[in-house]
Amino acid sequence: MSATNRSGARMRSVAPILLVEDDPVMARTVAGALIDEGYVVVSVDTLAAARSALERAQPSVLILDLTLPDSFGGDLLAELAERDDAPPTVILSLFHLASLVADRYDVELVRKPFEIDALFSAVRRAQEERRRPSRAAM
Questions:
Q1: How is domain 17-129 classified at the CATH fold level?
Q2: Which end of the chain has fewer CB atoms within 10 angstroms, the N or the C?
Q3: Domain boundaries in the chain?
Q4: pTM
């Protein structure tokens, strides 16, 4: 049985994408675009909520902002790098050191502001390559 999104398009994945973004406008925009592309999206706005969501279900991809109101997204990457079940991850951030964090954990970075197709491509690559946070050699 295949799932469909609100426009009737076939869903790409039954496991949701976990979007961790504290800016409500950005979260709605990104989630809406992903849903229109056929993805299921769970959106949270804090690192605490992200940890809770990761305890409940394994997302197909984690899209993570680094600057969050309750903590730094890199803290979650450090935790996930120690887990065998870490989801494929894409950093979505404007943080000036985001490229260093992405390199440190060997995950892809999409810098804000961005073209939505760049995010779609990064999500597809993360899924295909199973690019999970790891302790990259630096």
A1: Rossmann fold (3.40.50)
A2: N
A3: 17-129
A4: 0.89
